[in-house]
Amino acid sequence: MTQNNPGNIAVITSGGDAPGMNAAVRAVVRTALTRGVNVFAVQNGYRGMVAGGENIRQMVWESVGGILQLGGTVLGTARSDEFRTRDGRRTAAKNLVENDIDRLVVIGGDGSLTGANIFRQEWPDLLAELVDQDQISQELAQAHPNLFLVGLVGSIDNDMFGTDMTIGADTALHRITEAIDALSSTATSHHRTFIVEVMGRHCGYLALMGGIATGADWVLIPENPPEEEDWESEMCRALKSGREIGRQHSIVVIAEGAHDRDGNPITSEYTKQVLEDKLGEEVRITILGHVQRGGAPSAFDRYLGTVQGYAAVDELLQSVPEDEPKLVGIRQHGVVRSSLMECVVQTQEVANVIHAQDFETALSMRGGSFAESYRIFRTILRSHPKPPETGDRQLRLAILNAGGLSPGMNAAARAAVRLGMDKGHTFLAVRRGFHGLVQGDISQLDWMSVSGWVSRGGAGLGTSRHIPNGRDFYAIAKNLESHQVDGLLIIGGWAGYEAAYELFNRRNDFASFNIPIVCLPTSIDNNLPGSELSIGADTALNNIVTNVDKIKQSAVASRRCFVVEVMGRDCGYLALFGGLATGAEKAYIPEEQITIAELQEDVAGLIEGFKSGKRLGLMIRNEKAGGLYDSSFISTLFEQAGGDLFDVRQAILGHIQQGGNPSPFDRIQATRLASQSIEFLLSEVTKPNPAAAMIGLRGGEIEFTSIYDFPRLIEPGFQRAKDQWWLRLRSIAETMDQTPKTANQNNSE
Ligand code: ADP
Q: Which pLDDT value is given to residue 388?
């Protein structure tokens, strides 16, 4: 079989269900159809593959319409003992080959992928046996001598080697965070302690990240059991001292697989007993259970499923028999392909390493930012206001927000203040951004001023888009001097970066500007240089996705096209990613011109679609894309062209996008970046020419870029970075949403 003559593709979901699996199924089906390959779906996991018949169905374009926003898997999943036997797998092979299927995308956990690999290895023999038994013809067997296999990891546990994130983990983290936020408010009212048990099998990812995202007081994970002999007393001491500093409640998060250093399970019941005995107060347990698997997938899981499903098909179509099967995962936003079995073996190895009580290796094998996050969490957890180390000077660090409001600003401020005060330094709050710095609206923060900020939307310090000019600099210099500011942390967007650059350029004029400065990227627009992602963009995307889901539902009874306008200023990130995650047909972004010819083409596409049965159209437009061809213009144009065929509604999402509590991702990254920013300020402060820098995320790692480079890294005349990695996803968005001419149209999304 060559690349030019591929057999049919089948996609299957297996093992535990995970939100985002549907996005992957949709992407596999649509990419295969776009590439001109027949594609089948196997229902009910391996049980369906063995049972055959109706369980193996050919898919058309509309078969996967309207599934992007659904939780679980529309294909169903089931455990299958038959597939564990050779007889069962032989029957499964027969069912596939009879449909000319010899390419398989398996979406599941390590168990499902192991099973798939065995099946692939046995394939030639299974077909030979089927020929011997006269169950299939020699010709059929010869036409499909190999089974090509690609695995995607669908699992809420985020426990798999070969990918930074598994499909479903981000959504589970959303559920956990929502639940702990809700518990925190009742716990606060009663000054109570709650134990929250979360899923994750051998993996502590959900517990650790859930703990960071909610500001929990203690976390117990399998990878790093408590080091102290008497960890129970240590935990109680930490909770008690939290209360003494002023905390109103305590939350302990326990991973279901938690155990002590001897491998004895640490159960919620045991922990409750310990806390009640030692603290003398009533403790409540909440076991989150299957709620964590449920609900609509997050924006990230829709993205993850989509890009991985797309890559899986391309991988299958390029495979030659000598290739070993691949696992398609994600690293640094990009899709990566690794040896499937190597990943399975390494994943199982982590469990072995934990079993052998080699916890250091277990932590490092989790990869990504797991170990770093764990360290930060431990530091924040144990932090309390302290005097500086002997010999160190107590520093005065000022902190302010600047630019548009972005969810996560508070989370960053909280982490910075807590970590800095733990090292004995003083924090000054500058209110309302650079307005406050000009006007001297500066006051000292205490430990409890940032209490609860990790989960709170808005900006506790206030923010403004004011960029200092003229006499402002003199006033700023005076205020920095009179408050003896040793370092400045700007948590903000474009205005903050421009302002930092202006201060940096005037260092020769004003001695008090010669202090370390860090710009921490917070902007829903994701338009800042020096970072691939800015804090707040993930929350905004989730706001877009949830609201567009509702808008789409409102159109069930009519044939309607929505033109949804999203924010982003000069940057199309929210529009393109929002389009990917909501299944829009088109994303209009400011990086590209919109011509009247293109709009006419889009109208023609809509007319053709609605004529052949489409019920819903969805276009996402960035607020500045197209200039004069704004959302009203486009809506009117489409409405006129639609005539009786379809109507058009415009929806401007507006400030909803900036609102609400930050997503878990934004909270976690804000905490990481703030922690590193404080380290940076402290290390620069003693230098004669301290740096002014932008902190950012690149490939999942944290890096600093001098503010001196700001003008060089931005697109002249626009508020956006020159390097925009996400533009590469344009072609994937187009493949998903623009029905190939050959396929049937029914439902756009
Ligand atoms: P997960 O994929 O989430 O790890 P399981 O371990 O339950 O879930 O595996 C799902 C299904 O995959 C099983 O019901 C079984 O049919 C198949 N499977 C798992 N391991 C094997 C194996 N070693 N050999 C054959 N099939 C397997």
A: 81
Decide which of 3.40.710.10, 3.40.50.410, 3.20.20.70, 3.40.50.450 is the CATH code for 8-166+297-332. Answer: 3.40.50.450
Q: What one-character-per-residue DSSP string does 682-700 give?
A: HHHTTSSS--EEEEEEETT
Among 21, 82, 83, the mutation site with the greatest number of ligand 1 atoms within 8 A of its Cβ is 83
* Domains 169-292 and 538-660+730-737 alike in fold: yes
* Local confidence band at 738 (pLDDT 50, 70, 90 cut-offs): low
Residue 309 has pLDDT above 90, yes or no: yes
- Summarize pLDDT for 225-273 with one digit per residue, the tens: 888 778 999 999 999 988 888 888 999 999 999 999 888 999 999 999 9
Closest residue (by CA) to atom 22 of ligand 1? Answer: 115
Sheet holding 701-706, edge to edge: 442-444, 426-430, 396-402, 487-492, 517-521, 692-698, 701-706
- Say if ligand 1 is within 6 A of residue 604 CB: no
Our answer on whether the CB atom of 473 is closer than 6 Å to any ligand 1 atom is: no
110 lines ligand 1 (CB under 6 A): yes
Q: Looking up tokens 């005076």, which residue turns up? A: 478
Strands 616-622 and 586-588: parallel
- Please provide the CATH number assigned to the domain covering 538-660+730-737: 3.40.50.460
Catalytic residue among 17, 102, 110, 157: 157
Residue 151's pLDDT is 98
Distance CA(650)–CA(169), nearest Å, equals 33
Site to substitute for ligand 1 among 12, 13, 14, most atoms within 8 A of C-beta: 14
The answer, yes or no, to whether any atom of ligand 1 lies below 6 A from the CB of 112, is: yes
155-164, 195-204, 352-361, 387-396, range with the lowest pLDDT: 387-396
Is any atom of ligand 1 closer than 6 Å to the C-beta of 406? no
Q: How far is the CA of 147 from the centre of ligand 1 (A)?
A: 18
Active site residue 157: yes
Contact partners, residue 90, CB within 8 Å, separation at least 6: 126, 129, 130
Instruction: Report whether residue 86 contacts ligand 1, using a CB cutoff of 6 Å.
Output: no
169-292 CATH:
3.40.50.460
Over the chain, what is the mean pLDDT? 93
Please write the tens of the pLDDT for every residue from 606-653: 999 899 888 899 999 999 999 999 999 999 999 999 999 999 999 999
Q: Tell me: pLDDT of 747 over 60.
A: no
CA distance 664 to 657: 16
pLDDT digits (tens, 9 = 90+) for 647-663: 999 999 999 999 999 99
Domain 396-535+670-714 has CATH 3.30.1330.10: no
Q: Where are the domains of the chain?
A: 8-166+297-332, 169-292, 396-535+670-714, 538-660+730-737
Cα-to-centroid distance, 78 and ligand 1 (Å): 10
Instruction: For a ligand 1 pocket test, name from 17, 44, 77, 79 the mutation site with the most ligand atoms within 8 angstroms of its C-beta.
Output: 79
* Ligand 1 contact, 78 CB (< 6 A): no
How much is the pLDDT for 5? 59
Handedness of CA 560, 566, 572, 574 (dihedral sign): negative
How far apart CA 422 and CA 429 sit, in angstroms, is 17
User: Is the distance from the beta carbon of residue 650 to the nearest atom of ligand 1 less than 6 Å?
Assistant: no
Task: Kindly give the distance from the C-alpha atom of residue 222 to the centroid of ligand 1, in angstroms, as a whole number.
Answer: 23
CA distances from 691 to 485, 504, 505 (A): 15, 9, 12
Residues 116-137: pLDDT tens digits? 999 999 999 999 999 999 999 9
Question: For 554, which DSSP code?
Answer: T
